[in-house]
Amino acid sequence: MTFDEIVRAALEQRATDIHFEPNLPVMFRVNGALKRTQTVLSHDSLRSIASRLLPIDDWQQFQERGSYDLTKVISGVQCRVNVMRSDRGIGLAVRLLLTATNTFRTCNLHPQLADYLTRETGLILLTGPTGSGKSTTLSAMLEEINQKSAKHIITLESPIEYRIQPKKSIIRQREVGVHTPSYERGLMDCLREDPDIIVVGEMRDSEAMRWTLNAAETGHLVIATMHSSNAADAVYRMMMAFPPERQSTVLSQLGDSLVAIVSQRMTYRNQPGILVPVLEIMVGTHATRNAIRKGEVTKLTSMLQSGGPEGNWTFERYQAWLDAKTDWMMPEPPPTIAKISQEIDLSSATGVYEQTLPSLVLPPRPSNGRGGPPPPPSEPGESEHNELPGYRRPNPKQASQSSTTRINKEGRIEIPETEFNLEDLVKPFKGKDDKG
User: Average pLDDT for residues 193-210, to the nearest whole number?
Assistant: First the structure.
């Protein structure tokens, strides 16, 4: 299977993530659980894929940093790709971003979230662990504003995950490292660009937090995300990101500007059989803000539990709301091969048949300087492989034999039990040093 075909297969399985690690089976995350596939890729194969995903300048940055984030359309699907190094070599983590418009209703979110978005000023914190769906909820928030209000929205993201089409609002999405050098520089620039709403994709350090709080105090509504397990932990992490002599000032700024802290987890529900977000919401009431100003972080949990009448939600209370919910919105079915590959015509399909597909292997980077930069230099002990192990570039006369995929009448790929022969994987590396 080519890299594109693996992405297509993951889409057919309704996977949210794909994990590639040298000499280990490719893993799909489906309904929150990892599932092993039969496809195994070598270190050289993954290095070849990574070198073609990254432009030459970005490849040099990856060589220096050991990881790199980017977004790219692969097989018609917007993907967020993290290329990283591990003890086995180069690996990839791919997040599949479906192109459907996210709203509170389609994401099965509580409509109360819309109340916070009507504020003219202040700070909304969206928190949760990695993979908890913060980006999806954030895009639903922006779509809610976009459909109902005429606002000027500027987002700072790294990378841009969901591209939002302006409706009533003006939306300018800026990618850190591409359109602005850093979150701090982007926030400084935002204040001179007449924004109504500023979105900070992730507060990673104290400088980004400082400028985010400053923006929230200067007459703007700021929506920012960060990693934390719950609302009280978010306040504690912001406080501890600063030296002791600055903490009281930061807590005062946070207490004055806080609109709400929304913490999120994902859970799988057997009925209706989908992943749904579970929220904890701490509203910026007078009592909550006062406790934050005083640094009484330990009191926030009890205030959250007793603040139901004021609009606070604990995870348990929100779970009870989900248990009573009946009007579930199911995710859109993944696009079929007919939708994401215009070369295939399924209009006359009557049952399972074989259809020849063009090769989807990323072409080799030109090496003579004409039409593109040369390939990145090989590392010691590595060999350059333009193709995956066991793959041979098809002869045009034999294309129907070398790149045949079985597709059913609904346009979905039929995934074979196994894609590679173990001997074929081992042959290229016999007699060579084991680098990966």
Answer: 93
